[in-house]
## 1
Amino acid sequence: MPPYASSAAAMTFNYASWGSRVGASLVRAFVFLPGYIVVLILGAINDGLGLLAYLLYAVFTFVAGIRMYIQRGHLGYDVGDRVTGQALILEATGAPMGNGMQVFIRGLAHIVDSLICCIGYLFPLWDAKRQTIADKIMSTVVITGRPQQHDAKTLVINSLELWKPVIKS
């Protein structure tokens, strides 16, 4: 059974464990680690070279972060989710959130998870749907099951969807 259904009622969800969610976050962080190490090494060698490397790294981090949000919004998964075999979906529809901006707003909702000593991030340990407070605010769940596979063309097209509102104006 595919992880996304046209109707959430037609599908029962296997909620992702807290460990799986933490693993996906670690994979996301690891994407940026090699660049950071290069910045540190070049900064130790030469201040000017280190500054240039840092600026390039900052641009890369920004672009890669936007791409992850878009991919997670349109497809339901990013690199971290794909590695851990999970997907982010809207609970009501069983479909991905729809766009990167909604995933970004969900990211901002994680501020609530952090307010009381990061307890919100631990909610999946005891919550029946394994949701964080941000998930509850945005009505999302993280489910297990291999995300749909998409070819490179589909990923590029989905990434370009972000610019659709800009182009229409």
## 2
Amino acid sequence: MSPSPPVMSEPAFFALRTNGIKVNYWVVCRRKLWLFSKGVRMEHTADRVLLGRLLHEEAYRHQGRREVMLDDLVRIDVVEGGERVLEVKYSSRLAQASRLQVAYYLLYLRHMGAGDLVGEVRYPRERRREEVRLTPQVEAQVAEALRGVAQVEALPSPPPAPFTPLCRACAYAELCWG
């Protein structure tokens, strides 16, 4: 497969590269992204995160290429057959954020010379999977997210966050809502 022309030039992409969880947090909550980018890590206190970690350890154990780390930025859950990048999630509740995270991985890998791979978000508990492919529209969404992550990280203080139903289960709820 030949690489498609990128939406962002090579220098622009690498100037904005980040890690996948920040792309995910940019969709979910900008305040959470800001806190995470400043080194505030609350995930270890959240039961849902622990359940997700257990699921991740048990799911796809038979796959040989798990937890592939690239450049201390991109941690791919599973590489299946050399052409499919899998992200394992506990729930599809934040599917849009998960898809954008996988799309970022695909774009990152393309810029690293891997060509056009296919991504997939898998929800083992729901016995569900969603395929992710880079299209010009998806690439533009990733580029917007990368610029957005950089903007949030540059803020001198955390951005305000509206209280949503997601906040109740968030590991950062105590910092935001006391």
## 3
Amino acid sequence: MLSSRFEFHCHSCFSQESWATPEKIIQQCQKNGIDGIALTDHNEITGAQELKQNAPAWLKVVIGEEISTTEGEIIGLFLHTKINAGLSLSETIQAIKKQGGLAILPHPFDRLRSKKLPLKNILKNIDSFDIIETFNGRTIWGADNKQAENYAKQREKIRISGSDAHFLSEYGKTLMHNIDCSNPRLFMESLKKATATNRKTNIFFHVLTKLARFCKK
């Protein structure tokens, strides 16, 4: 299950800030040549399950979730059931690992993210994270992504790039290449040798996100 163009950390209409339906996501993936995707809606996996169920044979889908812990957000990949928000960070990581999934630290040093994990909590749990997101397409300050990259190298952690796409036109800007989606172990092994296309999204989409959140409320 090798994906030559893999999109990590993206959202569907099952996240409050997005209008992208699973059907439209499939169409956008086909348009942009994306053949692998990890859908990581906020505190929900219904969209990822629906996407996987309806995906054509050429599109490989990894079920993920961006989970709100009491300390901040983390991402779980290769999940089978939803993990409830509001657990502690350590409890959430344990819940991910119990499903055989991978625990990923997203946008760790993005100075504008109110829901990022505090550094003291990262340090306390760093050994429990399998992967660190070292490029986030929605991180405005390039230095914040660079800090994540340097931190991951210092800690010898596996690195990944994520688009954090909420809207269809963001899909395909940030991609990982030659990723094996077969299982968590092969996924991590392929990340060690993978290359990335890292392109930041337009700041305009941050405004659209706030609009979508307001409208959906």
